[in-house]
């Protein structure tokens, strides 16, 4: 503190008292700034095992909005399964959860167990896709990759793809993340990459989206930013992270796909995204007792 500020502080202390002076003092930038918002979650979550218990415990200590990338409960997406498996674990965070549906959720006709459990947070039951904003700079899109279960599916010119383009066109936010169940790119041995969701990826790319989160294969995999054809694109490419490590039994990897940068198939966990005004941090948070880690930082386009 400069001499003049010292004199002023002493004078104010005498008049106002120490507590009042402390209240007037400028706070540090880190204390004054509001914390950047957090988006955290995974897919392929709840069954009769213990994986979802481990990942729900992680959520207990991470504030923010919870996302799911489908297959919220196994095996058939019934109301009973949601109440028996999901509700005691991830259900603790239902009030802050914005889900997306998977194919197991649709094993019950119309995914009525899923829509009944999550209610309005899951969007229109005839569509299953919606969007919302987080903080001042981030737009979030939850899509429905169960293409055969909704009108228009995922096709170019279909209802969902047209809605997505209109939603992105009306979005003034500089950063965009989207999530759904079936991965456009994956090295998983159990499920191949989905070409059906290609039109959705193309729309996101056309509007400079930054990040896609998926599930379906029960593992973690991070790709380099790519264009819709799967070619590395550091300028406008979208990064995909497969976050299917929410609790269901692990799947193995098969042929490793181009631009796959990080992989794990033996650790349950959640993906934590810290959403900065012009970029994001990603972090794989492992279950207690495990050490696998993956983290990094990227700028928005």
UniProtKB/TrEMBL annotation:
Keywords: Hydrolase, Signal. It is an enzyme of class 3 (hydrolase). The keyword Hydrolase applies. Its EC number is 3.1.3.1. InterPro entries: Calcineurin-like_PHP, Metallo-depent_PP-like, PAPs-like. GO terms for molecular function: acid phosphatase activity; alkaline phosphatase activity. It comes from the Bacteria. Residues 1-25 form the signal peptide. Residues 66-220 form the Calcineurin-like phosphoesterase domain. SUPFAM superfamilies: Metallo-dependent phosphatases. This is Alkaline phosphatase. It comes from Actinomadura macrotermitis.
